[in-house]
Amino acid sequence: MIEALVAGLARLIAGGSARWHSDPAAEHQRIYFANHTSHLDFVLIWSHLPTRLRARTRPVAARDYWERGRLRRYLARGVFNAVLVDRAGAGPAAERGRKAVDAMVGGLGDDHSLILFPEGTRGSGEAVASFRSGLYHLTRARPDVELVPVALENLNRILPKGEAIPVPMISRVTFGAGMHLEPGEDKNAFLERARRAVERLRDT
Fold this sequence. Notes:
Blueprint: H1 2-14, E1 17-20, E2 30-34, H2 41-47, H3 51-54, E3 57-62, H4 63-66, H5 70-79, E4 83-85, H6 93-108, E5 113-116, H7 134-141, E6 146-153, H8 155-158, E7 172-175, H9 187-203
Parallel strand pairs: 1-7, 2-5, 2-6, 3-4, 3-5
Antiparallel strand pairs: 6-7
Helix pairs in contact: 1-2, 6-7
């Protein structure tokens, strides 16, 4: 009941619809990766998944934001079953990156899918920034999981950075065709191919 209410509210606020270039009802595990401009991003992607798949799809989200306050903690754990990762903290950045990838691999398990944002931080919505290496290392660890690019448009205007109250507007969510890491494909080539897959969806 709570999941349906949150999903319906997200779609109502964002005022848009989803377009699919892959099978929305596919039962196999997936990693949905998208551009990032708003704290509503993963909520909207999640809300457009078929109802039976939502419970099996876990957003990857920043621990420092989603564990701040009782309501956010409840939503992150009780509704979204989020995989929470640390954006900052003690220790080298490379070590934090490895821990984040390990958490995502564990979050996939044998039955779950993930929603993540390879840019690593919110952008302006005008362009898709370079992807960080986490998506590559996750894909190397789980090459069996299908990757699905997702383009989000206008979310930065619905909930601008620094604002807490969303402004209802029309948005668009486009799910692209599935892809995988190609044999022999190096990190930089893969990350640029993945970034361009999201960018092309914004232009269609």
